[in-house]
TrEMBL record:
InterPro entries, per database record: GHMP_kinase_C_sf (IPR036554), Mev_decarb (IPR005935), Mev_diP_decarb (IPR029765), MVD-like_N (IPR053859), Mvd1_C (IPR041431), Ribosomal_Su5_D2-typ_SF (IPR020568), Ribsml_uS5_D2-typ_fold_subgr (IPR014721)
Molecular function, one GO term: diphosphomevalonate decarboxylase activity
UniProt keyword annotations, A-Z: ATP-binding, Lipid biosynthesis, Lipid metabolism, Lyase, Nucleotide-binding
Domain of life: Bacteria
Chain ranges of the Diphosphomevalonate decarboxylase-like N-terminal domain: 14-170
EC number in record: 4.1.1.33
Organism: Dyella jejuensis
Record domain Mvd1 C-terminal: where: 184-310
Gene3D superfamilies: 3.30.230.10, GHMP kinase, C-terminal domain
Protein name: diphosphomevalonate decarboxylase
Keyword Lyase in annotation: yes
Chain ranges passing through the membrane: none
Keyword Nuclease: no
Entry's family note: Belongs to the diphosphomevalonate decarboxylase family.
Length: 332
């Protein structure tokens, strides 16, 4: 939308997604093409809200995150804005103000929601009539997992076959309301992680002896998860999701130097979740490239799961979310 001074402005919200069948590894680092497909759930109550304003005559991008000048991610954000500017034939800078209502860069998928919201708002501001699939492709180029946060509910990001990556795109498998699982997130540290995902994936591909086994076994996991989701088979989804999570960490642990994203509380939470499931509570865990544990459960179990995680020494806080929608406009 153009303002009086020719400024182009829009604002969007997107939520993090949690991979149940994990993405780890790139076959093309420039285009961010993955070595494996992945399946995720998009959360509801954790969000990124991003306001983008392209300002004629402004040379550089000006970026704030939670009200403070953003430096760590500024090059990636400018590279992402460049993709949008190229499409629109615009060459001036943007003011980007982004807020998260959850800890940034600690394995809570802030890059997924952040880049999905940035692409969605930026495309709208520039008047680009992009389909959600086209937005997913652009979001993927900014951060792989952001491709999935364009959509809500249960989402699959395809490996794709084309060299230009236009078919490595996310698509919805099932709506959030069709199977409303809940997610409890045990926060065990709010420190930024030491090795980011991009570097972690690069090191893994170069040094882990399990890389080829990881790639070879992914297709079977994707099929099992897809079938479990479409059949709303919680136990089947629990088994394949914990398997994919632990297999991804085994792969990364075997890199040199090994990537150890867990702390003691993360491991203790895994034991608690498994003990609950053995007692018949419908819950499973997953862990990403950071020390937080995500427990996914049926709605009836959420209070019991939260209480059990709060009880684990070293757990600082437990967040709670349902499944939510994809990226969308908000009042600018
Ligand atoms: C995932 N993770 O599927 C996996 C599981 C972390 C563990 O996607 O380099 O921030 O921007 O493509 O998407 C985190 O990696 O990495 C991630 P880039 P991204 O959710």
């Amino acid at each position: 939308r153009a303002g009086a001074s020719g400024e182009l402005h829009a604002a969007s919200q997107a939520q993090p997604n949690i991979a149940l069948i994990k993405y780890w590894g790139k076959r093309d680092a420039a285009l961010n093409l993955p070595v494996v497909g992945s399946i995720s759930i998009t959360l509801e109550s954790l969000w990124t809200r991003t306001d983008v304003r392209f300002v004629p005559g402004q040379k550089q991008d000006r970026i704030t995150l939670n009200g403070r000048g953003e430096e760590a991610e500024s090059r990636r954000i400018t590279a992402c804005l460049d993709l949008l500017r190229q499409r629109a034939g615009v060459d001036y800078g943007a003011r980007v103000a982004s807020r998260n209502n959850f800890p940034t860069a600690a394995g809570l998928a802030s890059s997924a929601s952040g880049f999905a919201a940035l692409v969605h708002a930026g495309a709208q501001a520039l008047g680009l009539a992009l389909s959600l699939a086209e937005q997913s492709v652009l979001a993927r180029r900014c951060s792989g997992s952001a491709a999935r946060s364009i959509f809500g509910g249960y989402v699959e990001w395809a490996h794709g076959q084309l060299a230009d990556g236009t078919d490595s795109v996310a698509r919805p498998l099932l709506g959030a309301d069709a199977w409303p699982l809940r997610v409890a997130v045990a926060i065990t540290s709010t420190a930024a992680k030491q090795v980011g995902s991009t570097e972690g994936m690069r090191r893994t591909a170069q040094t882990s002896p399990y890389q080829s086994a990881w790639i070879d076994t992914q297709e079977a996991d994707l099929s099992r998860a897809r079938e479990a989701i479409l059949a709303r088979d919680f136990e089947a989804l629990a088994q394949v999701s914990e398997y994919s999570c632990l297999k991804m960490h085994a792969l990364a642990l075997a890199a040199q130097p090994g990537l150890l994203y867990w702390n003691g509380a993360t491991v203790e939470c895994m034991h608690r979740v498994r003990a609950l499931r053995q007692q018949g509570v419908p819950v499973f865990f997953t862990v990403d490239a950071g020390p937080q544990l995500k427990a996914v459960c049926l709605p009836s179990a959420i209070e019991q799961v939260k209480a059990a995680l709060r009880d684990v020494p070293g757990v600082l806080d437990v967040l709670d979310s349902g499944l939510g929608e994809g990226a969308r406009n908000i009042a600018a």
